[in-house]
Amino acid sequence: MTLDKTKVVYQIYPKSYKDTTGNGVGDLQGIIEKLPYLKELGIDMVWLNPFYPSPQRDNGYDISDYTAVNPLFGDMADFEEMVRVGKEHGIDFMLDMVLNHCSIEHEWFQKALAGDPYYQDFFFIQDRPTDWLSKFGGSAWAPFGDTGKYYLHLYDVTQADLNWRNPHVRGELFKVVNFWRDKGVKGFRFDVINVIGKDAVLEDCPEHDGKPAYTDKPITHDYLHMLNEATFGQDGSFVTVGEMSATTIENCILYTAPDRHELSMAFNFHHLKVDYEAGQKWTLKAFDFEELKHLFHTWGREMSEHDGWSALFWNNHDQPRALNRFVDVEHFRNEGATMLAASIHLSRGTPYIYMGEEIGMIDPEYDSMDDYVDVESTNAYQSLLAAGQSPEEAFRIIQAKSRDNSRTPMQWDDSPNAGFTTGQPWLKAGKSYPQINVTKEQDGPIFTFYQKLIALRKELPLIAEGSYSPAYEDSPQIYAFERHLAGQKLLVLNNFYPDPITVDILPDYQNAQVLLSNYGESQAGQVMTLKPYETLALFLP
Ligand code: GLC
């Protein structure tokens, strides 16, 4: 398996991309309509969040049929057309595989509930619940019908965990993966895949949350190896990425080192917790730059030295917009957006762009709790109130942290609902759409900068393949790194603050070529002053 490291992935949340039917929900035909736009941007692959039949309790991550298209989004003919037209545009598709759990409306769970022991073995069903917590709040166990027993759900109560110890479960899931492979998709994103391996006996934990009993267990590596062998491992051009919850560098090296035959790359989330107070998401805190820099350097160096491979990203459907978290977006949206982009697109790993990031989309600024639909957010709001926060405080936290921040409709133009739908959108468009939209931004500084970054990765093997080493590790406001390959060198400096900062340029780079700058800088020097949110890439061919 050799991964093509020149590729860049673009993530589409299908529900919110483009609605062609007027039902207020984005659809597959909408994605087909926008393929020329994506080609213009230059990306190679589109990751689609789940579009399968689902009660939509968790926006499609609660799947009730793994091998069909939810009529909300279209049908199988639309899917096949999308893959075909995609290929004509040089764009492949990566599908989201949610194999840790299925909806309780899935026939496997329904048959289990009806008393079929074969299907009861597909789940974790016990007489006594443990003290584990659901990642969406409350206990991780719920009553299994009226049997007096309990089933495990690490996420929503409607998302029942699948028992990977059972070979029949693995067999069924591998069939699902092969079903979509046969349809011509070229990539998979495996949802929370590092929690599929659970301890043989599920018991109370000293930590009282259950995490040590199911996170990064050695058996998960065995399962991934089996998955690889039974499915995509047969095709060397496949791109696979695992979403890893609360993972470690050591495990991500094992998940992704090519000789292990598990996955091509891994998402970790540590860098997106640097604005959590005491590790808790539902809090307000300015981001901790020292921690961010330290995490990037440690992961960058270790993955580079041990042949691991990371998926690099600032945004996804579970995160508020990075511009609102890391940038003075009111004054420096263009500079901040381009600097954030360079800080990952010039680094070592595969960059992911989340829809709207390429035009500098920001959080929606909703006015009321009624505007939010995400189950995690509405649960969190209730918990914050129950913990004694005032409704105003609780609302401010939801505004900053809700996953709906990134799930708002793609902003295509300044017509009603941002040009996303002619109907009533399932989630309200962000307030910024009259100013921030594709029509206005497509020739603008952010979109064109992304085009350059994507093109550079294809032109220079140094960017795609080079090693990573930290630079300026003590700088209070610059995150910098070097890339090396076959005698070529690149130094990338990113000012993460609205204040300028003067730096002594490393001796080797004082006469270097300026490969990229978001301020039109053209010359290196001995001492340089980086402007607010400036990014500068110095190249030694
Ligand atoms: C992943 C998905 C998230 C979903 C969860 C449960 O974290 O990204 O959206 O809610 O898994 O499937």
TrEMBL record:
InterPro entries assigned to the protein according to its UniProt record, in alphabetical order? GH, GH13_cat_dom, Glyco_hydro_b, O16G_dom_2, SusG-like_C, Trehalose_TreC
- Record-linked Pfam families: Alpha-amylase, SusG_C
Segments traversing the membrane: none
The protein's UniProt keywords, in alphabetical order, are: Glycosidase, Hydrolase
Q: What class of enzyme is it?
A: hydrolase
Q: What is its EC number?
A: 3.2.1.93
The entry assigns this protein to a family as follows:
Belongs to the glycosyl hydrolase 13 family.
Q: What is this protein called?
A: Alpha,alpha-phosphotrehalase
Source organism per UniProt:
Streptococcus panodentis
Gene name of this polypeptide: treC
